Amino acid sequence: MKAFVFDAYGTLFDVFSVTSLCEDLFPGYGKQLSNLWRKKQLEYSWLRSLMSRYRDFWGVTEDALVYSAKSLNLDITASERAQLMDSYLHLATFPDVKPGLEELKKIGMRLAILSNGEPEMLRAATESADLTNFIDAIFSVDSVKEFKPSPRVYDQLPSGLKINKQEIGFVSANNWDVSGASSAGFATFWIQRSGFETPEELGHPPTHCVNAITDLCRFISPE
Ligand code: LAC
């Protein structure tokens, strides 16, 4: 294994760090709004792939926010919408992210991101979270105009990193994303932070399950 490639939203960045702003803007609805927003964001990405109607993830995320507010009967102004969208550029990272990446970098691993995110939003979130020094490359679905779990998304990794598929480990806390990468033939690491998530019934299980990014270095044998 020469490189670990990480999913972004839900794996490095906590998409539910928007919940407190949702609650400030819509008291009593913070949790519901942030949950529905994430659920619809993913649904729209899958639906758009099936419809062959790609729209970048920033647009998909905004559409999902508008839908979610409407469906909860929340009157969202243009400025509230902009505020919530802006929070996507400054998401918090999970506590294991920085120490885990730091450890992997120290032992010489190449580290990259492969995400549904559109390149500019990924760059902004990476910079805002202070991860730029750890991440060697950022790959986005935007280059293939189809969302995960399309195999075309994961297949850009070997040529992008200029290494063999067998030397790449794909890391995600989104179990369906792990299935997608496993199905595309990559070694996969499912980050199960809560430890009790149900594995997908999609037939392509993770190669390894770990509790945190800080557990990944034990899979690397010293040279
Ligand atoms: C991503 C999705 C899975 O970052 O959130 O690709």
Question: Your description of this structure?
Answer:
The protein is an alpha/beta fold. It folds into 2 domains: 3-13 and 91-219, HAD superfamily/HAD-like (Rossmann fold); 15-87, DNA polymerase, domain 1 (Orthogonal Bundle). Helix content is 42%, strand content 12%. It is built from 9 helices and 6 strands, in the order E-H-H-H-H-H-E-H-E-H-H-E-H-E-E. Strands 3-2-1-4-5-6 form a 6-stranded parallel beta sheet, with helices on both faces. The longest helix is centred in the N-terminal third of the chain and has 22 residues, at 30-51. The chain starts with a strand and ends in a 13-residue tail after the last strand. The model has no long low-confidence stretch (mean pLDDT 97). Residues 7-10, 115-117, 148, 174, 177 line the site of lactic acid (LAC). Lactic acid is lined by residues 7-10, 115-117, 148, 174, 177.
- H/E element sequence: EHHHHHEHEHHEHEE
Q: Give average pLDDT, whole number.
A: 97
Per DSSP E runs of 2 or more residues, the count of β-strands stands at: 6
Q: Supply the CATH class of the largest domain.
A: Alpha Beta
Cα separation of the termini: 11 Å
Strand content: 5-15%
Q: What name is given to the CATH topology of the largest domain?
A: Rossmann fold
Let me know the CATH homologous superfamily of the largest domain. Answer: HAD superfamily/HAD-like
Structural class: alpha/beta
Describe the sheet with the most strands. 6 strands, parallel
> Which regions have little confidence, pLDDT < 50, spanning 5+ residues?
none
Oligomer: single chain
Shape verdict = globular
> What's the number of helices?
9
